[in-house]
């Protein structure tokens, strides 16, 4: 495999992992990582506290890391 193929595979795995997140976690992850929004901006848009945003982002990163490592989420982990 070429390095470009490896990167393309990893990007597809990342996209799948993000797509598998619960909606709120996915929205917060994308707002922070893709759009560069601050915790305060995301909190205002979602009507969550700043801590609530941080917790959901941490959960999103945990889920993404597990899936990127090849560990599928159990059915109950998709909701927490």
UniProtKB/TrEMBL annotation:
Gene3D superfamilies (UniProt xref): Winged helix-like DNA-binding domain superfamily/Winged helix DNA-binding domain (1.10.10.10)
Gene Ontology MF annotations: DNA binding; sigma factor activity
InterPro entries: RNA_pol_sigma70_r4_t2, RNA_pol_sigma_r3/r4-like, WH-like_DNA-bd_sf
Coiled coil: none
Domain RNA polymerase sigma factor 70 region 4 type, first and last residues per copy: 12-63
GO biological process: DNA-templated transcription initiation
Name assigned to this protein: Putative RNA polymerase ECF-type sigma factor
């Amino acid at each position: 495999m070429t390095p470009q193929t490896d990167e393309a595979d990893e990007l597809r795995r990342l996209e799948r992992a993000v797509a598998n997140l619960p909606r709120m976690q996915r929205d917060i992850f994308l707002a922070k990582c893709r759009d560069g929004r601050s915790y305060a901006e995301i909190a205002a848009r979602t009507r969550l506290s700043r801590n609530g945003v941080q917790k959901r982002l941490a959960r999103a990163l945990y889920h993404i890391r597990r899936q990127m490592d090849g560990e599928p989420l159990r059915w109950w982990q998709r909701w927490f």
